[in-house]
């Protein structure tokens, strides 16, 4: 009789984890009690069986069960014969042995769990072997190798934890705890602050697991807005904030932070036109920035899987409160094995970022570029249809907002600094508009008086 995964035995010169008796009991239980298949099939898969014959037999039983046919020695033998596998698994005699090895199916679920546990241990050994091989392959990029290794282990852990329905009654206590927290924190934010009171009043802060998109055409101040938000989040929560800049260098980002904090224009900074008074303030501001848990990453050509891997490591070593990405369309997809069009690439990136937000339990705030079509029409306020490259940006996001400044297009605008923060999608709240002021010379966004304008929920 042949055994599954023989490479493991050859690699380590040891018999891999297995429980052949438990496998026999699982199959025998199904053959004496068809209904037990519903329970066992939720615990084990055919590939979990160590003995090849058992894997083949269980696969045939699953096919019969799904066709709503009887599960007994006769129907099983016919199905295996149809597949040309009856003699290979030991013939009708071995099927009879499986039936005779079980007196009752009462403990079938217990033995199924044993089979799955042994399969999980073999998967760990296999993953370890793959990770070792990956480490020896010189052509592999290190970040990609680490991410693939993490994914292999993570997938095994997710399978082991499993999943099931939750009765609504069992969810009442956690829901009540959450309601009480909201009740006693009335007026306080329940998520990560944006730093702008009028926006926070609408969002109540971005929540763990939120995938947030803030989009605009070039020149609207996307990067400045995200940096302002990142500083506010780091100050308020005291938790590390990751800021991925795929367009600007870390040094340029730090100069922008200094400009907005000291209120020295970027033009004057680059020219060295800094007065003695301002120069004297810079060390104090730098000391303040040094205390903020903001972590910048300006790696170019970053893939979304590499970004996720770096976020995981930051959370494991220092903690993590929020992730900012500038900007989404500059990320590369993880799947490079096949040719994908741009829509497919952006769809994969969006799905991965959404899963990352959920898995890490933090909001992921991604900047995005809008289509050039905005420039060709008279009404230049952005709409959801203007999101560039893919409808997945809108579908996957929990929150979508646009930055729009009329003064960018109309030099005679009444207030060239007035910037509209247009909330176009809000999964758990109202849409609408909040007015901000953009002081471009300082790369700084500010609240715009009492002119916030958004509808009631």
Automatic annotation (TrEMBL):
Keyword Nucleotide-binding carried by entry: yes
The keyword ATP-binding belongs to this UniProt entry's keyword annotation: yes
Keywords: ATP-binding, DNA replication, DNA-binding, Helicase, Hydrolase, Isomerase, Nucleotide-binding, Primosome
GO MF annotations in UniProt: 5'-3' DNA helicase activity; ATP binding; ATP hydrolysis activity; DNA binding
Pfam hit, one: DnaB_C
A GO cellular component entry from the record: cytosol
E.C. code: 5.6.2.3
A single GO BP: DNA replication, synthesis of primer
Reaction(s) the record says it catalyses: ATP + H2O = ADP + phosphate + H(+)
Domain SF4 helicase: 185-452
SMART domains cross-referenced by the UniProt entry: AAA (SM00382)
Family note: Belongs to the helicase family. DnaB subfamily.
The name this protein goes by in its record: DNA 5'-3' helicase
Biological source species: mine drainage metagenome
Taxonomic placement: unclassified sequences, metagenomes, ecological metagenomes
């Amino acid at each position: 009789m042949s055994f599954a995964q023989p490479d493991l035995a050859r690699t380590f010169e040891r018999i891999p984890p297995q429980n052949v008796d438990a496998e026999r009991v699982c199959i025998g239980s199904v053959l004496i009690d068809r209904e037990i298949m519903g329970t066992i099939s939720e615990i084990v898969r055919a590939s979990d069986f160590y003995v090849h014959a058992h894997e083949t037999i269980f696969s045939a039983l699953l096919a019969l069960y799904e066709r709503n046919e009887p599960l007994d020695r006769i129907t099983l033998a016919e199905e295996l014969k149809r597949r040309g596998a009856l003699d290979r698994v030991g013939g009708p005699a071995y099927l009879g042995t499986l039936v005779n090895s079980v007196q009752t199916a009462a403990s079938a679920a217990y033995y199924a769990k044993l089979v799955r546990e042994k399969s999980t241990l073999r998967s760990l050994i296999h993953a370890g072997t793959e990770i070792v091989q990956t480490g020896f392959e010189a052509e592999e990029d290190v970040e990609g190798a680490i991410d693939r290794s993490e994914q292999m282990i993570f997938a095994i852990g997710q399978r082991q934890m499993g999943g099931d329905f939750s009765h609504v009654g069992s969810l009442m206590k956690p829901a009540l705890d959450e309601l009480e927290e909201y009740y006693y924190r009335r007026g306080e934010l329940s998520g990560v602050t944006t730093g702008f009171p009028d926006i926070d009043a609408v969002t109540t802060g971005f929540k763990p697991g939120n995938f947030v998109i803030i989009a605009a055409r070039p020149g609207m101040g996307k990067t400045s807005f995200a940096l302002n938000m990142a500083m506010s989040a780091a100050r308020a929560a005291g938790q590390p904030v990751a800021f991925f800049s795929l367009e600007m260098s870390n040094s340029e980002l730090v100069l922008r932070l200094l400009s907005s904090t000291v209120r020295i224009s970027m033009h004057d900074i680059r020219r060295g036109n800094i007065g003695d008074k301002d120069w004297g303030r810079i060390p104090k501001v730098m000391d303040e920035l040094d205390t903020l848990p903001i972590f910048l990453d300006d790696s170019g050509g970053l893939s979304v899987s590499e970004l996720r891997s770096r976020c995981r490591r930051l959370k494991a070593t220092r903690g993590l409160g929020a992730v900012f990405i500038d900007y989404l369309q500059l990320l590369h997809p993880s799947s490079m094995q096949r040719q994908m069009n741009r829509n497919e690439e952006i769809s994969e990136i969006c799905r991965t970022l959404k899963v990352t937000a959920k898995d890490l339990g933090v909001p992921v705030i991604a900047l995005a570029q809008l289509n050039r079509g905005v420039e060709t029409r008279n009404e230049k306020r952005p709409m959801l249809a203007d999101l560039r490259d893919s409808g997945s940006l809108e579908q996957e996001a929990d929150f979508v907002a646009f930055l729009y400044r009329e003064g960018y297009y109309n030099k005679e605008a009444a207030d060239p600094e007035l910037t509209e923060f247009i909330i176009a999608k809000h999964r758990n709240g109202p849409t609408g508009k909040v007015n901000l002021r953009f002081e471009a010379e300082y790369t700084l966004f500010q609240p715009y008086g009492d002119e916030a304008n958004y509808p009631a929920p």
